[in-house]
Amino acid sequence: MQFQPPKGTRDFLPEDMIARKFILETIEKTFQKFGFQPMDTPAFEDWQLLSKKGSGGEAIKNEIYYFRDKSDRELGLRFDLTVPTARVVASNPQLPKPFKRYQIGKVWRYDNPQAGRFREFTQTDADIFGSKKMACEAECMAAAVYALKQLGFRDFSIRLNNRKILNALLEFTGIKNPAEVLRVLDKLEKTGENEVLRQLTNIAGEKTAKKLLSLIKISGQPKTVLLKGRKVLGGIKTAEEGFFELEEITKESETYGISGRLSIDFSLVRGLDYYTGPIYEISAKSAAIGSIAGGGRYDSLIGLYSGKPIPATGFSFGVERICEIMKNEGMFKFQKTYTKIFVVSVSDKTRKDAMEIAEKLRSRGIETETDLMGRDIRKQMEYANSTGIPFALFVGEKELKEKKFTLKDMRTGKEKKIKIEEIITCVLKSNSQHC
Fold this sequence. Notes:
Elements: H1 14-33, E1 37-38, E2 44-46, H2 47-51, H3 58-61, E3 66-68, E4 74-77, H4 82-91, E5 99-108, E6 120-129, H5 135-151, E7 156-162, H6 163-172, H7 178-185, H8 188-191, H9 193-204, H10 206-216, E8 219-220, H11 222-233, H12 237-256, E9 262-265, E10 278-284, E11 293-297, H13 301-306, E12 312-318, H14 319-328, E13 341-345, H15 351-363, E14 368-370, H16 377-386, E15 391-395, H17 397-402, E16 405-409, E17 415-418, H18 420-428
Parallel strand pairs: 1-5, 7-9, 13-14, 13-15
Antiparallel strand pairs: 2-4, 3-4, 5-6, 6-12, 7-10, 8-9, 10-11, 11-12, 15-16, 16-17
Helix pairs in contact: 1-5, 5-12, 6-12, 7-9, 9-10, 11-12
């Protein structure tokens, strides 16, 4: 019997992990650059926390991996990193505000696996707690833009909306069950307009469904969209609040130099129930794979757990989607192994010497491997070549006597005889140039 990973999960071999670690480390450095501090939470939480009304919502509740432990306690695997963090903030009111935290970890949702979407996936979250200022949204978006640029993305855009405006649109069209309608609208890109119209018609009638769909099609440059929005929803308090917040974000984004990437799209929903204000998604224009980052404001979530509301906003990257795009577009420009040099034993007599030289290289910060299989030179070279190790160092009796060793650049095939100290200098410089 051959075992496979469970549906919606994957194994990552070394080459894949090196690529993923590059993405995660780049994102983590960005979080730190913007002043976010690291935090972690358990992989599983109390079921009552995860399923509480106002947390993820009914659609997410149905996707939570639920189980009972040996003491018959109801638990669930975390479906995101925001809800567990909200629990932490609610339980620690003494945290200085603003509290800026980041978290990187796996989450689980019993979803239908498809391109860029899995049942087990990694989230990278950054959140700001304690401030109502729209400067927080602008800073979060600026951090997302900075990280994507560091990863090599250039052509991407930010769609912006506000849950308050969506709620006002539902009020304006006479929708009586907003949560259900928002869940349908959130599937617009996935299922298409005809299917959304069909579902909305079943909920609210054809006339209301068509009216709502025509209104959410309003999108474009912030000034133009806000002007159109005010003509339709002017006088509705929640809409005016939403328009003002989007104006503030647009102004703040100019300071960060990201305003040119912004557009406002009234069809943007972001499905989680806990969002209360501005929401946004970032998409790479060259990839038909959905958003690669997104976030929003959730000022009521912490109050669900503590009774005392604390303003909160944050964002997350879609690591799986980013990795898939970068792989498909050839954006990874590094070796498929961390090992920089393979020390080749020319004969059995020099194996001990080869290991000693390897230890010397490691002590100087160079990732080094030696032969552990007792193979001949040809087999050792085949291994070094197949794993993508960039340098091979030959250790034979003649080399030991002369104290000069043949170093082969596996990428160019060039060889040279140099001393150990020269080898160290050469290999340490090899990230940007050949020896």
